[in-house]
Amino acid sequence: MSLFVELIQIALGTRTVLSRIPSEDDWQQIYETAAKQSLVGIVLSGIEIIRAKNVELSVPKMLLLQWIGEVQVIEQQNKKLNEAAEHLTRIFKNGRLRSCVLKGQGVARLYDGSLSLWRQPGDIDLWVEGGRENVLQFLKSSYLKTGTVVIHHVDASIVDDVETEVHFLPSYTYDYLRYVKYKKYFKEEANQQFNHFDGQVGFAYPTNRFNAVYLMMHIFRHVFHEGIGLRQLMDYYFVLIHLTDEERKWAYGKLKWLGLGKVTSAVMFVMKEVFLMDDKYLLCSPSEGKGKYLLEEIIAGGNFGKFGEQYESAHSGSSFNLYLKNLKRLGKVYSLCSSEVLWAPIWKPSHWLWRKWKGYV
User: Fold this and answer.
1) Boundary of a domain, candidates 206, 234, 252
2) Sorting pLDDT into bands at 50, 70 and 90, what band is 307?
3) How confident is the model at residue 308 (pLDDT cuts 50, 70, 90)?
4) Where in 121-163 does DSSP place strands (E)?
5) What is the pLDDT of residues 263-276, one digit of tens each?
6) Is a pLDDT exceeding 60 seen at residue 164?
7) Are residues 111 and 180 in the same domain?
8) Confidence of residue 160 (pLDDT cuts 50, 70, 90)
9) How many CA atoms lie within 13 A of 304 on its CB side?
10) Confidence of residue 359 (pLDDT cuts 50, 70, 90)
11) What is the pLDDT of residue 311?
12) N or C: the chain end with fewer CB closer than 10 Å?
């Protein structure tokens, strides 16, 4: 993974040269790892920075052409999702519902230069005001197709070929007491986020201060459920370097209040180890033990854990078997947040019963 990481660091400007010239086999491995972590565009940027210095890099021609072609597709995907986010914003605005694009296209605007279009996108997560029942009623009355409804969002088919999750809340947690705090935090922040509208792109996206807390919630959620990849950690890197000192202190205080101090210290280790982040940007002291475990999970599982055994365990089998597999996985991440693990056996069946009672199953 070393040369792959070095190219990321070069793309970010935290490293200037490679420790050695990659061989043909190295390039294939670098490419495969970049694809696994959804960072093909970022790594290609590192390659271009080196080549701009007239340093000879023997990237196999066919591999390089494939690489460039994929990044051109990523550029088009980003443009399409930006347009879709603007379109979705107008749809809900016509229903007098404010919205805010979470993660993806909003965070991409923090990336430097061409990296904003070379960041590999996913779906659109749109936080819409009004509460679950009001949002669902609007979608139904607008004849917009919806899918699975869970506690914090509903899958929706609104723009062709664009997967969309319409959020009633940006995130959730198994721990009921922490969930109460989550909802309090979102309620306090909602108005500012819905009003953080960027006329240049035509949609609202969160403030950096909000993202410093929310994206950590998102990382935390995926670590416990199926896995997290370096693309999500890189998003957090760009949020951190754009925070003021005051915002940094505020965010860490809020994360500790939410019970996310341990996972934050693990993420800070990854920031240092992978991205060579300057200490002045860190929210807290890194935890080497927890951080190494998190990094091992990231390397093994790739983007959202899709290449690890945990992803298959979280998504295949009967409902009861999935439940047992997820509980088994939770036992492995006990050290990051014990209360989340202890609440899971209560929350999971309770959530299913709640969905059944509401008619969502």
Assistant:
1) 206
2) very low
3) very low
4) 124-128, 145-149, 153-157
5) 999 999 999 999 99
6) yes
7) yes
8) confident
9) 9
10) confident
11) 43
12) C
- Residue 336, class by beta-carbon neighbours within 10 Å (0-12 exposed, 13-18 middle, 19+ buried)? buried
Task: Answer yes or no: do 200 and 227 share one domain.
Answer: no
Phi, psi of 340 (to 5 degrees): -65, -40
- Taking only the tens place, the pLDDT of each residue in 23-36 is 999 999 999 999 99
Q: What is the pTM of this model?
A: 0.91
Residues 244 and 318 in one domain: yes
What SS3 state is found at 168?
A: coil
Same domain, 225 and 355: yes
- Per the structure, the count of domains in the chain is 3
**40 and 145 housed in the same domain:** no
Structure tokens at 341: 């693990």
Same domain, 172 and 320: no
Taken in order 221, 128, 38, 20, the sign of the CA dihedral is: negative
Q: What DSSP string describes 72-118?
A: HHHHHHHHHHHHHHHHHHHHHHHTT--EEEESHHHHGGGS-TTHHHH
Q: Are residues 220 and 306 part of one domain?
A: yes
In DSSP terms, 164 is beta-bridged to 124, 156
Do the beta carbons of residue 51 and residue 15 sit within 8 Å? no
Q: Which of 178, 206, 234 is the last residue of a domain?
A: 206
Give the residue numbers spanning the domain of 147.
Answer: 78-206
Which percentage of the chain shows pLDDT scores above 90?
72
CB 20 within 8 A of CB 94: no
Smallest CA-to-CA distance from 175 within 341, 351, 340 is with: 340
